[in-house]
Inverse folding.
């Protein structure tokens, strides 16, 4: 069995697989489920945003707790179980405000695990942190399987089947967490710099701004892309395939991106993803009815998420070292997948209601172009970063 410094590779990869298997059930089909309950675009935006909004504070708080206790796996097990328990109540309520409260509570627990798994993975990889994607790609595989199978399922079964499917998948995440042993050695040695001093570095601030804007641009995609395709008469099966195409492209990038990261400057890789991101969202807005262009824009997910995330993870890992690592990963999650995604999701709900569906992807293009300006002017490579790494 493959291992990374003592932690079984397949147990860790299994967590990524099941976690993103759950997201593959939830992310593309949650908005159509809410629409089937009679929710309008504004309500869908709010109920989707609340799930990621809590990451702004909860991920960082969980990161602070585990950095000081060292009980990462125990925390992951506890929050994974509480995620299942809290989401079960979605079966019982279909009105806006009860769902708002349930999802608010659920998201506090659901947002806890992934940043800590990221920190554990990178710590065990050590100097080979650019090989992170070899583990993370199994999450993308899980996502692909989920979106394709459920796309076919919802052509035969009602969308109401989504909730029990998600609950079952979350239960598998919790069961997998029980197989991962607690880390007995002290991985995080004290460092001389303070967390605040790292955070206030100008290039770190610019990185976080870029991450915020990138995920703000993804907010309309994650929330309304399925409904957008439904509006243009695509079938549920094709919608699943369209999501899968994007993540398949992401997997292909993950297979070799560690070699690219070891040879090229992170700053230039980030800027490339932002250029391609702007092209992607403009194409999605203007050419959704052109099947070939639509598939091409989905393939750009390889850059707008795959390369972007791999590069951002490297930045965070190289800047927030030692005992700051858990909070560093949590901060990245809070700013990007929390604040950025919540902002983009909320804005897209209001734009859809007031202007129309195409305009939400023009908003995405604006966010990506703004991130490109910030990266070009202020983003720098991590201090001490080498363009080529031997491993």
């Amino acid at each position: 069995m493959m291992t990374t410094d003592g932690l079984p590779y397949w147990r860790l990869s299994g967590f990524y697989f099941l976690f993103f298997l759950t997201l593959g059930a939830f992310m593309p089909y949650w908005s159509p489920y809410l629409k089937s309950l009679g929710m309008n675009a504004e309500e869908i935006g709010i109920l989707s945003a609340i799930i990621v909004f809590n990451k702004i504070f909860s991920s960082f708080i969980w990161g602070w707790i585990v950095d000081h206790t060292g009980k990462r796996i125990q925390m992951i097990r506890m929050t994974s179980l509480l995620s299942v328990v809290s989401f079960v109540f979605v079966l019982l309520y279909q009105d806006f405000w009860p769902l708002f409260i349930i999802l608010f509570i659920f998201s506090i627990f659901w947002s806890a695990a992934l940043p800590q798994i990221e920190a554990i993975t990178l710590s065990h990889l050590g100097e080979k942190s650019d090989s992170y994607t070899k583990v993370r790609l199994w999450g993308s595989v899980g996502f692909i399987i989920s979106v394709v199978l459920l796309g076919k399922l919802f052509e035969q079964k009602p969308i109401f089947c989504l909730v029990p499917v998600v609950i079952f998948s979350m239960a598998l995440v919790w069961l997998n967490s029980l197989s991962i042993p607690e880390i007995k050695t002290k991985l995080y040695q004290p460092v001389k710099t303070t967390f605040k001093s790292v955070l206030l570095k100008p290039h770190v601030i610019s990185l976080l701004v870029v991450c915020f804007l990138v995920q703000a641009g993804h907010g309309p995609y994650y929330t309304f892309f399925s409904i957008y395709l439904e509006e243009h008469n695509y079938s549920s099966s094709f919608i699943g395939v369209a999501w899968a195409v994007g993540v398949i492209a992401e997997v292909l990038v993950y297979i070799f991106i560690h070699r690219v990261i070891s040879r090229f400057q992170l700053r230039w890789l980030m800027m490339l993803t932002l250029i391609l991101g702007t092209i992607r969202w403009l194409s999605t807005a203007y050419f959704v009815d052109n099947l070939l262009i639509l598939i091409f824009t989905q393939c750009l997910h390889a850059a707008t998420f795959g390369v972007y995330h791999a590069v951002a993870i490297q930045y965070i890992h190289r800047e927030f070292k030692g005992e700051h690592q858990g909070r560093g990963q949590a901060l990245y999650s809070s700013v990007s997948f929390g604040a950025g995604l919540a902002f983009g999701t909320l804005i897209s709900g209001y734009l859809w209601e007031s202007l129309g569906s195409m305009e939400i992807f023009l908003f995405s293009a604006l966010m990506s172009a703004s991130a490109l300006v910030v990266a070009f002017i202020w983003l720098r490579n991590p201090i001490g970063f080498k363009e080529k790494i031997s491993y």
In short: Residues 202-231 form the longest helix (30 residues). The first strand starts at residue 3 and ends at 4. DSSP finds 17 helices and two strands in the chain. The radius of gyration is 20 Å.
